[in-house]
């Protein structure tokens, strides 16, 4: 469930005395974007995680990929892809899906280092993910582990944006149509390989811009509040 803007800011203020790491404190001290801001005036960080499973309580982040959107463009120079070093042996089915082997994982970075870097990049930006439940729950689980608390997030979901659009058009909702690759195809975007965190982050960023182009043709003056639902 998405909290209101004022509730999110209140949560930040309540957490500040409990958080000591400077990166986390800067994140909490920086206000979220005003919900009245036009979408084209915002800066975004588009995020994707590959994980060892779907349950943030027992599974782990295997890799992170993210990129920025500014002035209606994906900033390719801002792209980051991090493999997380885990103290486990990856099951064969995970290696098949994500193509990350134990040897490659052993050369990754620790979660706390990756998280500090990510939170620093998140500060002052609106997050975007496709089916944001995964990124939200795993990110907050990582925050709780590293910083001692789950910090609030301001995050848009390209899947939910598309679902609301189709509901307004009174179209039949078919779940498989909302997979990232299928939605990109619907917007005539090129096909990318799946299960790579950075590729999926870039794919989500391009999908978001395509969605915004469509929505702004139909309705002028779209603001952040219109996308948060």
Automatic annotation (TrEMBL):
<dbReference type="InterPro" id="IPR013520">
    <property type="entry name" value="Ribonucl_H"/>
</dbReference>
<keyword id="KW-0269">Exonuclease</keyword>
<protein>
    <submittedName>
        <fullName>Exonuclease domain-containing protein</fullName>
    </submittedName>
</protein>
<feature type="domain" description="Exonuclease">
    <location>
        <begin position="43"/>
        <end position="217"/>
    </location>
</feature>
<dbReference type="GO" id="GO:0004527">
    <property type="term" value="F:exonuclease activity"/>
</dbReference>
<keyword id="KW-0378">Hydrolase</keyword>
<dbReference type="InterPro" id="IPR012337">
    <property type="entry name" value="RNaseH-like_sf"/>
</dbReference>
<dbReference type="Pfam" id="PF00929">
    <property type="entry name" value="RNase_T"/>
</dbReference>
<keyword id="KW-0540">Nuclease</keyword>
<dbReference type="InterPro" id="IPR036397">
    <property type="entry name" value="RNaseH_sf"/>
</dbReference>
């Amino acid at each position: 469930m998405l909290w209101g803007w004022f509730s999110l800011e209140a949560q930040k203020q309540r957490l500040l005395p409990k958080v000591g790491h400077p990166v986390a404190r800067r994140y909490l001290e920086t206000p979220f974007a005003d919900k009245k801001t036009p979408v084209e005036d915002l800066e975004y960080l588009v995020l994707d995680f590959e994980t060892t499973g779907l349950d943030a309580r027992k599974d782990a982040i295997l890799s992170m990929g993210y990129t920025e959107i500014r002035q209606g463009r994906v900033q390719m120079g801002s792209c980051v892809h991090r493999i997380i070093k885990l103290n486990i042996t990856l099951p064969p089915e995970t290696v098949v899906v994500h193509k990350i082997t134990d040897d490659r994982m052993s050369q990754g970075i620790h979660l706390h280092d990756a998280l500090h870097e990510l939170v620093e990049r998140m500060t002052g930006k609106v997050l975007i993910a496709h089916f944001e439940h995964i990124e939200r729950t795993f990110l907050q689980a990582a925050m709780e582990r590293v910083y001692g608390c789950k910090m609030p997030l301001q995050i848009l979901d390209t899947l939910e944006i598309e679902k609301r659009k189709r509901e307004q058009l009174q179209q039949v909702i078919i779940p498989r149509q909302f997979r990232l690759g299928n939605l990109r195809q619907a917007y005539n975007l090129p096909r990318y390989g799946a299960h790579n965190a950075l590729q999926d982050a870039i794919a989500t960023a391009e999908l978001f811009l395509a969605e915004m182009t469509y929505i702004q043709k139909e309705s002028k003056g779209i603001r952040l509040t219109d996308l948060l639902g």
